[in-house]
Amino acid sequence: MNGRPMSCEELREVLELYALGALEGEERDQVDDHLARGCETCQRNLRDALAVNALVMASVKQATPPVGLKRRVLAGFGIERSGWGWLGAFAAALMLLLAGWLSVQERHRQSELAEARSQVIQITAERDRLNQAFNFLNQPETKQVTFGAGKPQPPKGNIFINSRLGVLLIASNLPMLPTGKTFEMWIIPSKNSSPRPAGLFKDNGQGTGMNILPGTMDSLYAVAVSIEPEAGAQTPSDVILVAPVGGA
Amino acid sequence: MFPYTDGDLARRLRARDPHVMSALYDRYGRAAYSLIYRVVRDAGVAEDLVQETFLRVWNRAQSFDQDRGALGPWILTVARNRAIDHLRSTDGRMSASSTELDRIENPRLFANFEDSAMTLDRARRLREAFVKLTPAQREVIELAYFEGLSQTEMAARLKQPLGTVKTWVRTALKVLRDQLSGQAVA
Predict the structure, then answer these.
(1) Which of A28, A187, B65, B155 could form a disulfide with B111, with the two C-beta atoms 3.0–4.6 Å apart?
(2) Chain B interface test: which of A77, A136, A196, A216 (most B C-beta within 10 Å)
(3) CA distance A21 to chain B (A)
(4) In this complex, do A54 and B73 lie within 8 Å of one another by their Cβ atoms?
(5) What is the per-residue pLDDT across A189-228, written as a single tens digit (0 to 9) for each?
(6) Do B53 and B65 touch, CB atoms closer than 8 A?
(7) Are A158 and A170 in contact (CB under 8 A)?
(8) What pLDDT does residue A248 have?
């Protein structure tokens, strides 16, 4: 390589590896450069590489997921599967009775295990969010905008904008959320455009919260926060913050 | 078999309808579980990682292009990355950091796929391409896709010069690409 710029054709040979996160050093930097410059050939080739990768991933021998996995997955979203019917429910209740005291300890252990697994998943998700945030802050091209400084009541904090990685909002002084409500972040790409949903988040119980909208950011005029129902909204209703960022 | 298109599922995901997760699991749960199990070889861990995969898809769906996005490839990539991240955390490897994996599963990358990118015919061609690979080429593909190894790590694992490993990888990928595009020489 020796620092020689690689052509799109040469980069095409390694885009599958790039899309797997398995490309290193100078080769990876050169792909990054081409994509950051908006090279259409490389963007098209990257889509082809992602499709090749997906086909390889889909080619593995199909395994049967354990019974109950769907219920576990859906329980994470507050959904229980229906359709057992009263007969099934009765049979299940009878089985539980028959199992009786023999199963109490085992169920207790399983419950603790499930809770521990759930906690691990939550901690992993939180770790991922923090890693993303650190990555934002570590990039030299990340632009920082401060809002609400010196004001005691309205939300205050910082917005970090990185054209390659997205937008990171860190806010304090957030109002207390009513039950069944959540904060929703919005981005306003230009002065006359409508707000676009940019993710739901909650505070830490003390009025401080963080949200990341990942992805490339071509233009950004302002970031806003509103209070919405738990499921979020497509247009903001109770807006508590609008912070211009000095963009397009 | 499925009453919804991927576009329907993507729109409901973006609208934060939690009930879409049932349909999404029906369509992609088995593929995600099979892929993760292929990587981690542990049913309990695979279950946890499938949960994590769907949670992540839900949390990041706002950036997904509901009209032009390729839902299947994105979900498989998220699933594969969760499994690789798990492998990496258990064996202490640091080749692809969590942020790197984050970056390459950005939902915005999975837009504007060709309609013909994920057909059964292409899946069949891919299987045929694998048969054409030499054992060494097949091994490096397995190490890249299912163990998340970089070329430097492959060279160390296989006790081969880096240049040799790079040649195997590039040749193998070219065979797959050519076979998929119909340019392969029989």
Answers:
(1) B65
(2) A77
(3) 6
(4) yes
(5) 888 888 988 888 888 877 888 888 877 777 889 999 999 9
(6) no
(7) yes
(8) 44
Range of the domain at B127: 120-181
* ipTM summary value: 0.92
pLDDT band at B94 (very low <50, low <70, confident <90, very high): low
By CB neighbour count within 10 A (0-12 exposed, 13-18 middle, 19+ buried), where does A238 fall?
middle
B186 assigned to some structural domain: no
Q: For CA atoms A219, A224, A229, A234, give the dihedral sign.
A: negative
B142 and B73 inside one domain:
no
Domain count, chain B: 2
B79 and B169 share a domain? Answer: no
Pair (B85, B37) in one structural domain: yes
Domain A143-244 has CATH 3.40.210: no
Name the residue among A243, A130, A237, A242 with its Cα closest to residue A178: A237
pLDDT level of residue B27 (50, 70, 90 thresholds): very high
Chain A CB contacts of B140 below 8 Å: none
The alpha-carbon gap from B142 to the nearest alpha carbon of chain A, in Å, equals: 10
Domain annotation covers residue B28: yes
Q: Please, which residues have CB within 8 angstroms of residue A102's CB and are 6 or more apart in sequence?
A: none
What does the pLDDT read at residue B62?
84
Residue in A46, A81, A199 closest to B62 by CB: A199
Q: Are residues B14 and B98 in the same domain?
A: yes
Interchain CB distance below 8 Å, A52 and B63: no
pTM for the model = 0.64
pLDDT-flagged residues of chain A (< 50): 1, 82-83, 85, 248
- Interface size between A and B, measured as CB pairs under 8 A: 202
Indicate the length of chain A as a whole number: 248
Q: Are residues B26 and B90 in the same domain?
A: yes
User: Which positions in chain B touch A132 (Cβ < 8 Å)?
Assistant: 99, 102
